[in-house]
Amino acid sequence: MIQSIRGFRDILPGEVERWQHIEATASTLLQSFGFREIRIPVLEKTELFCRSIGEQTDIVEKEMYTFPDRKGDMLTLRPEATASVVRAYIQHKLFAANPVQKLYTIGPMFRRERPQKGRYRQFYQINAEVFGVSSPLMDAQIIFMLATLLGRLGIRDCTVHLNSLGCPACRPGFKAALAGLLTRHTGELCEDCRRRAERNPLRVLDCKVPGCRQALADAPSMVDHLCDACKEHFASVQNHLETLGVPYILDNRLVRGLDYYTRTTFEIQTGLLGAQSAVTGGGRYDGLVQALGGPEIPGIGFAIGLDRLVELHALVQEVSGVHPKVFFCALGNAAQRMASEWICRLAAEGIEAEMDLSDKSLKNQMKQADRSLAPLVVMIGENELAEGQAVIRDMASREQHKAPIAGLLDVLRNTGK
Ligand code: HAM
Fold it and tell me: What is the CA(169)–ligand 1 centre distance, in A?
């Protein structure tokens, strides 16, 4: 038997209703905040991700599904959506009419990480990006929007972690201070961090290995190195979050795993999902549009990890499954034809109905009706056809009554709506 690939999973009926509910709730809210949907390909030129996410990140170094296509062009299954949305924004000159664009997209991403609970190789994101706005009010607005989404979904026990990574003017000073500390503590760092210390020192800050944590206990903080403009920007973000009533904690270890960030970065974390605590990650990337060949236009965005949000939601909310409104138990050829026609007519009007088409006994059809969870069952056989009356059974009360076949569809239409 052929099984699915490790880290790739099926989302089955019964679970999928929860995904649909969350996606619909998020889409409605995003649209209320002025976001419009964009759909982008899952496959892109590898270079797009190397140039945006950064050559020296875990994602680009070891997690991408990259392969040559039949002509030898290097292609990559997208590990995230931001790079593609920025590419589309530039490629279609979406900035020409109005640089301010708010775009969202929902779909699968691919990273070859070690699979575990909450971490998959194909996972899903609700991804949103705002172009053309450098105001810190926008940073606070989108964090408020995320907090509102969690509230609408009934999810609590989440914390907004906030940091600023500065800009090309002030970050080098911070990096130099950090690099100095890392050199003094090389011996105490894990193997990964020793490598990171040389190539991407900021990433050492979010290493979870206790030895590294201890070695960095008095690491410098980016916020102490911010230039005046970045300091003012960050203060405004915090001030507006307070106005909007969104609680947050300042987290100077929050460096994120992608290199394009500038200034505000944030994550929404939860203690309810074990090691995979980040439900959402995002931040500003004011230089990315230009780095990918577009004009100098700022950007900010986030991605919600849908797999994790679904797991969180499952801890707090029931989502009712979908089931037919009526199940027809039809015995004999003529009755089956009639039931089949009714099912088609009802479905075309948006009312789901179901029947058995394999000539089962009435007893077995009733069992199937029970399993379908349809609240109503209609029974018709030769006798009922001859009489012109069908039997309608209310599955909750177990009461039965007869109804004329001629007016049956109307009766079902009215109860079905
Ligand atoms: P990210 O932090 O790499 O950011 O991913 C965002 C979220 O996707 C994470 O917080 C997590 O919930 C989920 N996620 C990531 N990897 C996995 C995985 N292997 N399995 C399950 N869930 C996962 C980005 O992707 C940025 N593009 C976000 C962004 C948009 N920044 C600006 N705009």
Answer: 27
Residue 305 resides in a domain: yes
Q: Is 302 in the pocket of ligand 1 (CB under 6 A)?
A: yes
For 38-68, give the DSSP string: ----SEEEHHHHHHHH-TTSHIIIII-EEEE
* pLDDT above 70: residue 293: yes
End-to-end alpha carbon distance in the chain: 43
pLDDT at 128 (0 to 100): 98
Nearest CA to ligand 1 atom 15: 305
Across the range 359-366, mean pLDDT stands at 94
> Does the structure show a pLDDT above 80 at 417?
no
- Is 245 within the bounds of a domain? yes
Q: Lowest mean pLDDT of 49-63, 181-195, 254-268, 378-392, name the range.
A: 181-195
pLDDT of the residue at 52: 97
Q: Is 286 in the pocket of ligand 1 (CB under 6 A)?
A: no
Residue ID of nearest Cα to ligand 1 atom 8: 305
Alpha carbons 326 and 135: distance in angstroms, whole number: 55
Separation of CA 397 and ligand 1 centre (Å):
48
For ligand 1, atom 16, name the residue with the nearest CA: 119
Q: Name the domain count of the chain.
A: 2
Residues 150 and 254 in one domain: yes
Please tell me whether residues 124 and 259 are part of one structural domain: yes
Q: Which of 276, 294, 316 is the last residue of a domain?
A: 316
Q: Is any atom of ligand 1 closer than 6 Å to the C-beta of 298?
A: no
Nearest-atom index, ligand 1, CA of 113: 19
**Which atom of ligand 1 is nearest the CA belonging to 111?**
19
Atom of ligand 1 nearest to the CA of 59: 3
206 lies in some domain: no
Note whether 150 and 279 are same-domain residues. Answer: yes
In this prediction, residues 299-310 reach a mean pLDDT of: 98
Which atom from ligand 1 is nearest to the alpha carbon of 120? 20
Q: What are phi and psi of 43, to 5 degrees?
A: -115, 135
Q: Are residues 98 and 122 in the same domain?
A: yes
Domain for residue 5, yes or no? Answer: no
Name the residue among 227, 28, 33, 253 with its Cα closest to residue 138. 33
List the residue whose alpha carbon is closest to atom 32 of ligand 1: 301
345 CA from centroid of ligand 1 (Å): 44
> Ligand 1 in contact with 136 (CB < 6 A)?
no
Domain end among 286, 316, 346: 316
CATH code (residue 382):
3.40.50.800
Q: Which is nearest to 91 in space by CA: 298, 295, 342, 266?
A: 295
Write the burial class of residue 202 (CB in 10 Å: 0-12 exposed, 13-18 middle, 19+ buried): buried
Q: Which domain holds residue 268?
A: 16-170+226-316
